[in-house]
């Protein structure tokens, strides 16, 4: 399915400095960036960084003097997903995980899975099918955590959210990841453009490693799972910030959008209760 | 300098399970593993995992039934280091960091550098030479944090230690890393065998990325910097645990040692006050 | 019912200093201290402090020089309790609380009820009878938190325990208190001697203010509710420490016991599922 | 000195509920409330609660139905203070503290002095005069913590602020209290009306118990110490909230002011470097 994605971000720099942006649609075998355009106004030297394991396309922008900066990115992206049937998924075994996935079991800055071990097992340990575990914990987050902005901040972690039970997409994703890892299911953070997200913003959700694939989950249930264009994956928000700012540079405004690029019929896909179809962006 | 390193670890498994061990001396251009021997008693299938970016040599051991397990590792390792002069090191610039190093600026599970930004700048922001900054913050940790076991645990983080001011080598390293990152200096956790560490144990310290190299620092000052054999580096202890245990397996006892393998004169190297020589394991 | 309570505590003082002990059985209209004896060996000046609102009988001991100190307390205490029927208890209303009880709704050091508001309401908000709420949350703690020493410490709070789900009587009590306060039920910490507690130690549980009385609850279910001799109540463990130590004084060993003083038939009382009888020490 | 204090607070109640307000000027031997007026519009039943130990004058307001509520309080208050000379104050001794003051040594919700023990002694342990210790730690807070709203919230504690080093008057006071208690100096939270505070708001600072009196300190240095009208004291903000809300009631707007009521010359008093005069509101 083809989507037009767009963002425009403005910054006010009062000093020289560096911006590391993470807004490009990722290029993967099944997410084709058909066209894209980036403009930096005023013109500044920018450099695309070779990402580790193809998980993001960082762009580093050098500001050599104070300025008002406007960065515009638009792309036409074709995202192909597959639906896998996980109804016969056996219990997750560490012995069968590839080495490149193992570190997604480790706790990270915002996902202190080491502290959630007992809670995760008390709540979800009785379920034997790991796909069903992740669907169930995602539903549990959706039912217990209130989606409301202004109550969490850049330092809020899964350990906070599991008790305070309020937050935004970032907090929902961190909690989902921490619970997965506590259940010995590798999980990673996913940022992207999201079809018709309201209010318009970048979105965050998460992927769990199940049956040899990264399967997408979104405890906010705010957008269809097949309406996401991947920007980056990483351990948590610390790895995948939309922008890392070095210097006296202030973010001022932002626009984001993600629209269908073709007239064809889009069928929003969400997980249904009791279902075993999982969505995989290869 | 050649060292004989040795460890023997015993586990009591009451179920099947998996051990992921991180005890092999790392192979790098300048750390040569001249010989090594691993024995698992009783014999079990073990697999060396291809590590990400050569930062560790994980070994995965499958336990298919309950057993008493004894793992013995010994190696003869030649570690070559260099002393670099950092007296004219310019201020750290994000614009000059390679892409593969950038993520060592991110906060991690035990090193919440995002929370230490103001404290780090209040204490060390006046220093312009980044090498001097790291030497100074290492000294500050050494002077203010009491080295005492039993007061910190597996969940203690740099955010705790900076205030509670008590802990072990792991806590000293986490605090050093968090302070470096808060000062925009990439930093990573280092585990290794340490010459004549008392009481005998694995050691943890940290590396800061300065002038294009990873330079070694140890806020505990318990061992000479040139008496370390590197096992692994990672973001923090979550990435470099000596053992990750999956299943009902209990650690029981451990022995560790690191001795000189040759009669030649070993001159212990520590940073001296006001000096600008930094030790680099290439 | 009459009980013989006993404790002997030993300290090693390496300097002068002050001990504030909180080990005397409290004197209340319904807890009669029939006889008691305190010995300090070697003899030191000790002073009983007039407690705030009769909630504890602090004893301050002055150490004027280094010494080995042995403090022995024994008492014969008659504790009278009542069983109240709470089957028709209306919803708790702040408007009907006496002024002296209001501050037991506030969060305290170990009971951060402000952070547990949503969790408490998600779990127990559907219950209208406040007695049933407290019985249910006490059962929830008992079922979800593992009783095991060595995993929590003097800094562990209800906010930790609600997620880490492991701890000792102190942690169980803190979590019970925090959940009550989050549900607008005043709650306070209770320390005491406990009949046949194994291993022998002081015990901690909590009281909730229901229908005009302080009703006793114990999420550990380790001892019968009618087998407790009250030492002190307070906001949490910070107010009711068995000993506060000022100076270089180390606690070395302790003995505690609580035995029936009469041959009469003792019927252990625990809350039963679905029951509405609450135990009140007046 | 006579001051006119004033506040007007508006609430939007969408349900019945209870407000517990803490806005009345306290009546003490040396703070005389010469006249005061409270209006609740629309008229609602309000009850002044007998406070514990005269530390606050809580007012409980019952809302029996949804409404828009406007509460107006104005008073003419004469606050008398004394300046004491603490140049010869001996070291603080627990043995000489009255029983009613002892619990101000305990850690509380926002002042986890138990975690700051080593830090406090490392920074201020070398000072022998307790008054000088508190002046010095107050200056340290003033120099290291940035006064900026929007970075801390209702859950921010001294343990956060000591590292994050940003906050508002409430956070400055909590950190001051925690450091005092860690140094075995009883300390308590103080809320009040503050002369010409900008932007206009209620103010928070703290009192330390020194030489038998509660001495006032304000690490924000935003207002003169002799320009404060005391509303309440307590362990921390949890005890002295301007308003505790029970029910679906939203705070909407607030005005606060504190002006001189007489033309006489007001000489603002602040602690001067190296001085030993401490301000005491009896």
TrEMBL record, chains A, B, C, D:
Gene3D superfamilies: 2.60.40.2250, 3.10.620.30. Signal peptide: none annotated. Residues 161-221 form the Transglutaminase-like domain. It comes from the Bacteria. PANTHER family: BLL5557 PROTEIN, BLR5614 PROTEIN-RELATED. This is Transglutaminase-like putative cysteine protease. The lineage of its organism: Bacteria, Pseudomonadati, Bacteroidota, Sphingobacteriia, Sphingobacteriales.
